[in-house]
Amino acid sequence: MKFLDQVKVYVRSGNGGGGAVSFRREKYIEYGGPDGGDGGRGGDVWVEAVEGLNTLIDYRYQQHFKAGTGVHGMGRNRHGAAGADVVLKVPVGTEVLDEDKELIVDLEAAGQRYQLCRGGNGGFGNTHFKGPVNQAPRHANPGQDGEERAIWLRLKLIADVGLVGLPNAGKSTFLAAASAAKPKIADYPFTTLAPNLGMVDLSAGERFVLADIPGLIEGASEGAGIGTRFLGHVERTAVLVHLVDGTQDDVAKAWKTVRHELEAYGEGLEDKPEILALNKIDALDEETRAARAAELSAAAGVPVRLVSGAAGMGVTELLREAYALVRQRKAEAAAESSEPEGWTP
């Protein structure tokens, strides 16, 4: 299945049905009077987050959506039927933006929905206009027009931990070792062209979602390589795991390159807790491993974990550390949301 995380669609709600002009005519009834019914209301356009979707590929092949038009009113005070609604089903984590890319709503939970366009009201039939002066009104209201707009749908995957690093840093191999995910793995850069998700199960009650995104290269913030397009998928994560390929000569430069692109992208990624790990240590001897870990730690100013996704070395320990940080961040967020407004500890 192809991955699509951003698409532009056009939506229009339904027009309301027109009211009817009708008079009651029955045998033996001398004064029938007006009996035109009201028009039906036009259908609405909704967007709803649902479980089971992780791409916007459905909107690659259809971009125009129109709700049903209300049925016109009829004689004998028969009201027209309302037009059918249209519901755009999107993955959890989808942002809805207007044509100028301004946020309309962020659908962060399954079942959350938002009305994009309201259907037009149906027109009044001539029954509404009868009175002592005008006992036989010969006019009715037309239905109101629906609303029309263009919107952008932008998906940001829901994950707890995000993997970042240069191309060929071993992120996909690490994801495969940490979860049941089966991303494409090869010995050349940019094997990952779209984000991958994996569920990490540490124990019966300890699990979290791990996201692997395509690698960043120098100049990604200006569009080099795949650019920073997919960094949006780790904006919602609580923790970043930064993997550095231990087999390259300058591990400090590799770390600085990715950190620069994270800072250039912004959106709070540079402030997220980061676990720094030297990967592919199974390919290094003890002396080289220690030297490059020390070089990387000196450049970053933080401890460096030694791991190998291919050999499974240090993977579980790193995952447990990431899970502890995820729990800590969630507890802090819950405490902040429960504090009364204006309250300070």
CATH superfamily of the largest domain: P-loop containing nucleotide triphosphate hydrolases
What is the overall silhouette? rod-shaped
Number of domains: 2
Question: What would the CATH topology of the largest domain be?
Answer: Rossmann fold
The radius of gyration is: 29 Å
Structural class: alpha/beta
- Report the β-strand fraction as a percent range: 15-25%
For the largest beta-sheet, the strand count, sense and barrel status come to: 6 strands, mixed
Q: Your description of this structure?
A:
It is a single chain. Helix content is 18%, strand content 23%. By secondary structure, the protein is of the alpha/beta class. The protein has two domains: 1-155, GTP1/OBG domain (Spo0b-associated Gtp-binding Protein, Chain: A); 161-338, Rossmann fold, CATH 3.40.50.300. The strands form three sheets. A six-stranded mixed β-sheet has the order 10-11-9-12-13-14, sandwiched between helices. It has a five-stranded mixed β-sheet with strand order 3-1-8-5-6, with no helix packed on it. Helix 2 packs parallel to helix 3 (286-300). The mean pLDDT is 88.
